[in-house]
Structures are given as structure tokens and as C-alpha cells.
Amino acid sequence: SLTRAHDESRTGKAINIYKDSCRFLDEATAMAVLNNVRQLARQLKDQSLECCIYQLRADYYAVHRGYNPLSITYYKKAIAYAADHFMPVETGIYLHKEGLFYFKFNRYGKACLYFLQAYDKFKEVGFDRIPHIARYIAEQARFYYLLKNYDKATSLLETALACPVKDQRVLTSLNTTMGLICRSCNQFTKSV
């Protein structure tokens, strides 16, 4: 239950519950569930969880409507909430997530803008203070790799590999992308 979870794990649990149980519900039911979680966040004075609800709403509409203005509005609300409540870690994360939204729907110019802002915020806060930082940097590296900006992708991959990586899938993705870049640049000995 979310009420018994520690503050630092509550948001992650809420995201997992949303993905498992809420993401594919009809709109009225899903929004009612998210409203209830927002009320719980307010009762618990958990600003991180309350901020996360905006991102979950953005995700819901992206899943059901594709590229749409409502998702963009909710991403902007998450970023604004985080900034207004002096939550720099969350500000960086939601800037990044908005970048992923644009990337997913092939709006590369906007994606790049949000990725750059997120990266700057991560750097300002300190990579060691950002949970799962290697994953975020790896996602940005993938973006640059797909745009064939191999120098930028390599730089980001090297940065991500210097960070603690707890998730084996992220580590595999980092190494695979580095290998693909080496192959694309005909640096076969470096990719092995």
C-alpha cells in the first residue's frame, strides 16, 4: 500500500501500480484513481508523489491518444509543480520525460530542447543525487545515436557508464549502443 511505503519509494510504487493496474482503464476510471492518489499525496504531504500524478496523466493520454496537447499540458504542469516547490531532481526528471514524449512521436527538435534542459538540471543537481541517472543519460544517448550524432551519443554513454548502474538492462543497453556506434564508425576493434 502507498500509505505504508517510505516517502522515497512511494512514487516508484505508485508508478508501478499505475502501469500494472491503471494505464489501460477507461479514462473516467483512470482519472478517478489518479485523483484518489493525488488526494493521498496531499494527505501525506508527499510533494514528489503529487507531482508524479501529472506525469502519469500525461502518460495515460499519450498511450490512448498518441501525440496530443493534453499530455504536453500535463508534462508542463509536472515541471512547473516541481520548480515551484523547489524540487530540482523532479524538475530534471520531468524535463527528461517530456523530451522522451517528443522523441517517441518524432518531434526531434523539441525532444532535443528538453533533453538538453534536463541534462543541465541533472548536472546542476549532481548526478549522484539523481536516482537512476544512468538510465536517463542512456535514453538521451539513444536519441543522439538514432540521429547519427555519434560524438554526442558516445560522450553521454561514457558519462552514464561512469555512474552507478543498478539495472542490468540499462548496463546492457549502454554497452550495446556503444558497440553499435563503434560499428557505425567502422571502429571494429574498439567495439569488441
Q: Helix and strand succession?
A: HHHHHHHHHH
Q: Main beta sheet, described?
A: none
Helical residues, percent: over 70%
The quaternary organization reads as single chain
| Estimated structural class | mainly alpha
User: Uncertain spans, ≥5 residues at pLDDT below 50?
Assistant: none
Helix count?
A: 10
User: Span between N and C termini?
Assistant: 46 Å
Number of DSSP E strands: 0
Shape: globular
Q: Please, could you describe this protein's structure?
A:
The chain has 192 residues and is mostly helical. Helix 2 runs antiparallel to helix 3, helix 6 packs antiparallel against helix 7 and helix 8 runs antiparallel to helix 9. The longest helix has 19 residues. It is globular. The N and C termini lie far apart (46 Å).
What's the layout of helices and strands?
Elements: H1 7-22, H2 27-44, H3 47-65, H4 69-84, H5 88-104, H6 108-125, H7 133-146, H8 150-161, H9 168-184, H10 188-191
Helix pairs in contact: 1-3, 2-3, 3-4, 3-5, 4-5, 5-6, 5-7, 6-7, 7-8, 7-9, 8-9
List keywords for this structure.
0% strand, single chain, globular, 192 residues, mainly alpha, 10 helices
In short:
The chain is mostly helical and 192 residues long. The protein contains ten helices and no strands.
